[in-house]
Amino acid sequence: MDFTDLTVKSAAELLAHKKISAKELFEMSLKRIRQVDDKIHAFLYVAQEQAKQQAVEADQLIADGEGFALTGIPYAVKDNILVKGMQATAGSKILENYKATYDATVIKKLQLENPVIMGKTNLDEFGMGVSTENSAFGPTKNPYDLTRVPGGSSGGSAAAVAAGEVLFALGTDTGGSSRQPASLCGVVGFKPTYGRASRYGLIPLGSSLDQPGVLAKTVEDAAIVFQIMAGSDVHDSTTLPKPVPDYSAFLKPDVKGLRVGVPKEYFIEGIQPEVRQIVEQGIAKFQDLGAIVEEMSLPNAMHALSAYYIILPVEISANLSRYDGIRYGLSVPGKNLEEGYFQTRSQGFGAEVKRRIMIGTYASSAGYYDAYYKKAKQVQVLIKQDFARAFERYDLIVTPTSPSTAFKFGEKTADPIQAYLEDIFTVALNIAGVPGLVVPAGLTSQGLPVGLQIIAPHFAEEKLFWAGHALEQALNLKLKPNL
Amino acid sequence: MNITPEEVDRIAKLARLNFDQTQKKKLQEELSSILDYVGQLKSIESKVPLAANHDPAAVNLMRDDVVVVTADPEEFLAQSPDRQGNFVKVKSILE
């Protein structure tokens, strides 16, 4: 049995039929990590002892007839999500020696089924980046081409799933951080509606935009995992107490009658021809499967990137003010309290983090607030209205995920705006709060993956899983890198 | 637009960040070009009430005002760089 061929679903079946044990799954996952992680550097920390213990417990639960969908399934967690007792660096020197004192709600929920946490994965510092090149602990490499980036910020999670080190991984998504790396690494990437899943225990980036995300090999796996993560939380007042439907009931092979809108603004100049072609083939596939596909317009969607790079830095400048070297994390003493703040933050934060704190501080400072922040919040209303109008007519919207495939290391580091443009197709969802799913749609002639992005109305995640699953079945790609 | 060196200094002070001269020069250019990019929004007609940003379905999530034991204080205190007994130690604020 090849561990890299397993999915959450198929491994759970093997466990249920006693054809494999959780301990064996743990050992296979560990062996794979030992085999390939030197090459791709997806993990910042491997929780060998703890994972082994969890696997033994999972086997006991299964033996007692108390196994669930995720019992004994090895997975990885992005290193900006708190797992009690484990490191949570957020990819930053400032949290290098921090140990989480509690579990994030999504971790707590998942652990009720006793899956096995294999470790913590790499990311751009605090989630600020599109390539993992901004990690303070060195970049992750794309399993399809080690000279290229895996995307980001959840690049470690996407690479770990693509390389078959684990069966799924958790990411976060503030502007595309789970979806863009999924597209670049040929895996499924999912971002829920803002308010559908708890942010408690996610190290905050932009609190009005952040959501936990899922990286998986199949849409069905993403649905199985998210089923358990979803729901309101007393520790996150922005979650909504809406019932969570049974997502697996929506996984059907066709999309008959589904109305799909294709926004013309997303097929701009500058998109790589092969990316465009692969996405268009995917859209044609929806038509073959019975969907009604129409070109439409989201007139303000392309302003989302500008609004995002005002709203997000403003929230970053506020959220990251907590790193003051007093209660936890790096502390560089100064001759007085204030100098300690300056020293700690200047030595602890990387260049991109400082850049965004500076932008956010500027855009929210006296005299500039109205011109930047208030304006961006007004444009956010326009973008939300665009989506609301579109979803009166369409069930789903389908777009490319990123204008290009995985790029070479260093290619977009000289000019920050070049990196920001990577998110041009993904940020509008966070600005509008709507959910999105990225499904692998094909490989370019260079063998690089391209993902197609599906967007649904607020709290209609089931439509994403439905359409995504149908597309995946029809395309039947079975992507796997040669590592 | 051009961010002046004085503005870089002003923002850095507000953000509690130190930069050397080379970094400041680079930041000045980068901030200017990023603000130019995001400043494109200024040309958009957007006279909309900001209240439209609030989801009418959103409700306050309340929990009972009862004491819940979360973690041992020792676990939190162990993270602090400097402590004295059960207190986090900070430098004096008044000199």
Automatic annotation (TrEMBL), chain A:
Q: Which Pfam families match?
A: Amidase (PF01425)
Q: Does the keyword Protein biosynthesis apply?
A: yes
Query: What Gene3D superfamilies does the entry give?
Result: Amidase signature (AS) domain
Domain of life where this protein originates: Bacteria
One GO cellular component term of this record is: glutamyl-tRNA(Gln) amidotransferase complex
Substrates-to-products reaction catalysed: L-glutamyl-tRNA(Gln) + L-glutamine + ATP + H2O = L-glutaminyl-tRNA(Gln) + L-glutamate + ADP + phosphate + H(+)
Keywords in alphabetical order: ATP-binding, Ligase, Nucleotide-binding, Protein biosynthesis, Transferase
| List of catalytic residues | K78, S153, S177
Please name the GO terms of the biological process aspect recorded for this protein, alphabetically. Answer: translation
Indicate the segments forming the Amidase domain, all copies.
Answer: 24-464
| Quaternary structure and interacting proteins, as annotated | Heterotrimer of A, B and C subunits.
Q: Which NCBIfam families match?
A: gatA
* Family affiliation: Belongs to the amidase family. GatA subfamily.
Q: Under what name is this protein listed?
A: Glutamyl-tRNA(Gln) amidotransferase subunit A
Which organism was this protein described from?
Candidatus Doudnabacteria bacterium RIFCSPHIGHO2_12_FULL_48_16
TrEMBL record, chain B:
Write the signal peptide boundaries.
none
* The reaction(s) this protein catalyses: L-glutamyl-tRNA(Gln) + L-glutamine + ATP + H2O = L-glutaminyl-tRNA(Gln) + L-glutamate + ADP + phosphate + H(+); L-aspartyl-tRNA(Asn) + L-glutamine + ATP + H2O = L-asparaginyl-tRNA(Asn) + L-glutamate + ADP + phosphate + 2 H(+)
Q: What does this protein do?
A: Allows the formation of correctly charged Asn-tRNA(Asn) or Gln-tRNA(Gln) through the transamidation of misacylated Asp-tRNA(Asn) or Glu-tRNA(Gln) in organisms which lack either or both of asparaginyl-tRNA or glutaminyl-tRNA synthetases. The reaction takes place in the presence of glutamine and ATP through an activated phospho-Asp-tRNA(Asn) or phospho-Glu-tRNA(Gln).
Q: Which GO terms describe its biological process?
A: glutaminyl-tRNAGln biosynthesis via transamidation; regulation of translational fidelity; translation
> What InterPro entries does this protein map onto?
Asp/Glu-ADT_sf_sub_c (IPR036113), GatC (IPR003837)
- Protein's UniProt keywords contain Protein biosynthesis: yes
Name the domain of life this protein comes from.
Answer: Bacteria
Q: How does it assemble?
A: Heterotrimer of A, B and C subunits.
Tell me the protein family, please: Belongs to the GatC family.
| E.C. no | 6.3.5.-
UniProt-listed Gene3D superfamilies: Glu-tRNAGln amidotransferase C subunit, N-terminal domain
Q: Which UniProt keywords apply?
A: ATP-binding, Ligase, Nucleotide-binding, Protein biosynthesis
The UniProt GO MF terms for this protein read: asparaginyl-tRNA synthase (glutamine-hydrolyzing) activity; ATP binding; glutaminyl-tRNA synthase (glutamine-hydrolyzing) activity
Name used for this protein in its record: Aspartyl/glutamyl-tRNA(Asn/Gln) amidotransferase subunit C
Q: Which Pfam families match?
A: GatC
